Fold this sequence. Notes:
Number of strands: 10
Structural class: alpha+beta
Number of helices: 10
Largest sheet: 3 strands, antiparallel
Distance between the termini: 43 Å
Shape: globular
Mean pLDDT: 89
Amino acid sequence: xxxxxxxxxxxxxxxxxxxxxxxxxxxxxxxxxxxxxxxxxxxxxxxxxxxxxxxxxxxxxxxxxxxxxxxxxxxxxxxxxxxxxxxxxxxxxxxxxxxxxxxxxxxxxxxxxxxxxxxxxxxxxxxxxxxxxxxxxxxxxxxxxxxxxxxxxxxxxxxxxxxxxxxxxxxxxxxxxxxxxxxxxxxxxxxxxxxxxxxxxxxxxxxxxxxxxxxxxxxxxxxxxxxxxxxxxxxxxxxxxxxx
Length: 244
């Protein structure tokens, strides 16, 4: 599907609105090849009240990223329309916990990180696809306003941690990981329930002098668990310190 990418400043207004009134409603939920981040999966499996492992097995498929050499999880699509498993005639059935890419659309987001300060700079572009009629609506907002309205800030914060890990991997270990390293990456980033059982509850963190109160928080706080999983992958694959 052809599309145009038009750069837009963080505080520059653009015209767009997505609603059931648009004749294209739900079209963007078809013809999918949708990458899911670890935080996407964390939110979706909580919405469905199932384990991360059950969600991964039931709703996702895994293939290797051409550029990253890392496993990429995408939705298992439904029927010949290649539609999202959670779309209905009335819209998204998991709307409150929809993935970051759904929340961000029609924006694309890229970041750069200052090596000295660690400060992140955001860049945005509008994705204009032929099927989308949202740009003909009158509502105007800036990317910053859109991100706030779509509650994307927390998603970006968590997903930037993954991007930092991927950048570290590509700098340190170009190409594909071996099977053991691949399992470590999937365990620490995606299969968080098993990570909690195999690592957190196995006194691993206590052995590394992580304060007991922090370990207790990790056991019940899924966002902190994900941050811990990413730190653990850095420790296992790149010998970095476990920082909390």
